[in-house]
Fold these 3 entries.
Entry 1:
Amino acid sequence: DGGITQSPKYLFRKEGQNVTLSCEQNLNHDAMYWYRQDPGQGLRLIYYSQIVNDFQKGDIAEGYSVSREKKESFPLTVTSAQKNPTAFYLCASNSRGGVNTEAFFGQGTRLTVV
Amino acid sequence: DAKTTQPPSMDCAEGRAANLPCNHSTISGNEYVYWYRQIHSQGPQYIIHGLKNNETNEMASLIITEDRKSSTLILPHATLRDTAVYYCIVRAEYGNKLVFGAGTILRVKS
C-alpha cells in the first residue's frame, strides 16, 4: 500500500543531544514537509522540499536541519540548538502540481527531551 | 499563500449538519481552498478541496462564495467520530508550500 511512514512513534532524547526523525513515502510525491505541533496548537512549518536536493526554511527552522538526497526520504534532525524540542512532529508529502494535490500525512513522532 | 480565518471552536449536535466557515478574503485567482481535519494525536486527513465551484464527496460538501472570499465546509450528518480540529487552507495549484492556521475545534455532542 502507498503511504507515508514516520519512525519512531515515540522518541526520548537527553538534553544536548541531536536526534533524527525519519520520514519515508512511496507515493512518488515531489514535495515533502515537516511540521511541529505543540499541545493545543496548530501545525507550524519547519522545512519543506519541493524537489530532490533542494529545501527551504519554513516559519520555525531554527535548531532544525533536513536533507533530501532521495525523493522518498526527508529526514529531520533536531539539533541541540533547538531550545524547546519537546513536541509532536508531523511529516507530509504531496505532488507539486495538477488538480489532485492533496497532502498525505504520517502518524507523527512524539519527541520528549528528558 | 493567502491567510485564512476560522472560528476557534464550534459545537454540533449528533446527527445534525455541521457548517464550518472559513474566510480567505485575500485569495488569489489560482489558489484552491483545501480542508483537512486532525483527530487527536493523529496526522491530519484530507477532506475536500475546490477552486470556485461547489464540491461534494463521500465525506463532506464545500461551498465557495461567488467572490471566493469565504467558504463553508458541511458535514451533512455529524457523528461523534467527527469531533476533530478542522483546518482550512488556501494554496496555489503548483509548487506552493502548505501552511496551516489554527483551525476550528468541532465538538459533536450526543
Note: The mean pLDDT of chain A is 91.
Entry 2:
Amino acid sequence: QVTLNESGPVLVKPTETLTLTCTVSGFSLNNPRMGVSWIRQPPGKALEWLAHIFSNDEKSYTTSLKTRLTISKDTSKSQVVLIMTDMDPVDTATYHCARIFKTLAGRFYWFDPWGQGTLVTVSS
Amino acid sequence: DIQMTQSPSSLSASVGDRVTITCRASQTISSYLNWYQQRPGKAPKLLIYAASTLQSGVPSRFSGSGSGTDFTLNINSLQPEDFATYYCQQSYSTPFTFGPGTKVDIK
C-alpha cells in the first residue's frame, strides 16, 4: 500500500522559512517512473501545483514561486523536503504531497495517491 | 503557463442523474489531461488520466473524453458518494496546472 505523510509546522510567521517533509512508503524514490510532487490548496480555493522531483533528481517548480522554493529528497529515509522562503499570509494553505507517476513513453504524468495534507497558517 | 477553465463552477443534481463537467485548456494539450475528485475535508483522488483512462478501482460510471483543448468528465447515475468537487489538471507541460474546480452538490 502506497502512503504519503506530510509533516511540518502548523504556524509560521511572515518572512519566515517553511520546511515541509513528505515521508513515503510502499514505493521507492529510486523508481524511475515515480517521483513526489507538492501541491497546495488555500482554504476554500483550488489546487496549485508547486514542485516535483524524480529519482534522477529532475526537479521542476511553478513559475510564480520558483525563486522561493527548493525541493530535495533523501532516498535512504524515503523523504522529500520542500522549503519555501519568505512566507506571507497568502501562503496559508493545506500542503499536500503526492506521488507523481509518469509513463515511460510520452509525457503522461498524474498524481496518485495523495497525502492527507498539512494545514500551514502564516500569521504573526 | 497553460490556463485551465472548468464549467460550470457548481451544479446541483439528484442521485441517479447524469452529470457532465467540461474543462478547457488555453492551448492544445493533446490528451495530457487528468481528473480528480475531492470530497470535503479529504485529499484529492485520481479518477481519470490521459483524458479517458479510468484509474484502477474507480467505478465505471465515471468516464472522460476529449483531446486538444476541450475535455469532458461524465458521471452516469450519480451516487451519494459522488457529491464532491472535481478538478481537471494538465500534464502537457510544467508548470502543471489545475482547473478552478466544479462543485457537485445535492439538489
Note: Chain B has no helices and eleven strands.
Entry 3:
Amino acid sequence: QKEVEQNSGPLSVPEGAIASLNCTYSDRGSQSFFWYRQYSGKSPELIMFIYSNGDKEDGRFTAQLNKASQYVSLLIRDSQPSDSATYLCAVPSYSSASKIIFGSGTRLSIRP
Amino acid sequence: ETGVTQTPRHLVMGMTNKKSLKCEQHLGHNAMYWYKQSAKKPLELMFVYSLEERVENNSVPSRFSPECPNSSHLFLHLHTLQPEDSALYLCASSLTGTDNSPLHFGNGTRLTVT
C-alpha cells in the first residue's frame, strides 16, 4: 500500500461547480495534513493545512479530515479555470515528523 | 528577495561532470529539504536538514551529496549521474521541520543528464 494515495485524474469539473479531491494515507499516527497546488512548470504552493478531525474552511477551499478512516479531502467551491492544476496531498510521517510524504497528485481541469 | 531561491533554473550535464545545485532561503526557517520530482511519480524526499544537521537521508545514491553550511543555504553536489537522474529538483524550507510546519518551495532546478 502506498503511504499517501490519490487518484491521478484528470478530474474534469464545469466552471462554478464543486471540485472534490481525495487522499488516503497509511500512517495511522500522522497528525497533520497539507494540500499543495502545482501549476504546470511551477513549484508546489501551500493552499490548506488541517490538524483536527472535521472541516476547515478558507475562502473557496474546505479541507475535511477523518483520522479514523485515514482520509483527507479538499473541496473547491465555485471552481474557476484558474483552479486547473495538480493538487498534492502531503502527510508527515508519525515516526519522523520532518519526513513529509507526498501523494502523486490529482490533475484537476475546470472546463468553462 | 523571494522566499526560497534556487540556482541554476536549468542544468544540462554529462554523466562524467560534477556540478552543484544551490538553494537559499530568506524566511528565517530552521529546516531545509531536497525533493526530486520525476514525470508521473510523486515528489521523492531526498534529504532533510534541521539546524544544519542532516536528519533524513532517504536511501539516496552516493552520487548525490548534500551540504548545509548554515540554516539559510543548502547545496546538492552531483557527480557521475545517470540519465534516470534527469528530473526537477526542488528545494524547500520550513520553520521548525516538525509535522505542523508547512513547506515553502523554491522554483526548482530542471536537470538533464546526457
Note: The two ends of chain A are 36 Å apart (CA to CA).
